[in-house]
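Long-time lurker, finally posting.

We've been working with DDE domain-containing protein (Paraburkholderia caffeinitolerans) and I want a structural starting point before designing mutants. I don't trust myself to interpret raw outputs, so I'm hoping someone here can both generate the structure tokens and explain anything notable. Sequence follows.
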Amino acid sequence: MNECGSELDVLLQKRLDKAAAKRFLKHLLRSNPMPRKIVTDQLRSYPAAKADIAELASIKHVFVKAVARVNNNRAENSHQPARRRERAMNGFRDPLRTQMFLSGFGPIRQHVALSRHRMTAQSHRTKLKARLAAWNRWTAIDAAKCTH
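Top reply, 14 upvotes:
Generated this for you. Predicted structure of DDE domain-containing protein:
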């Protein structure tokens, strides 16, 4: 998650060890700008992996305790939509296919999903219509073909 609450990436891994944490951090560094700070849970594999990556040596690392994670932590709450999508797509048995789907679907969902609790129904419909029109332009879908 970035400071705006947008999902940066999803990376599924079998283990939560140092090698997995290092792989995850390097994966994020390749595709995103350098962070000002890193916020993680208290899993000790993160600082061990961070110590092995020279680019992250000067970056502040903040640990969030379990109580804070439950109450107010965007990083922990960001996992919930991914888990919800995994549960809904029970047909995924292969971790590679699940990873491919979640990596591709995340940016699409962020474009279309709106925070409905913060706006009126009319405002929601207007914004959603504009976002879907942009999506149709990006994907070159002819509106005449999509009449229902």
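Before you design anything, note these points.
The chain is about 55% helix and 5% strand.
The helical segments are 18-31, 45-52, 66-71, 74-77, 79-88, 95-112, 121-139.
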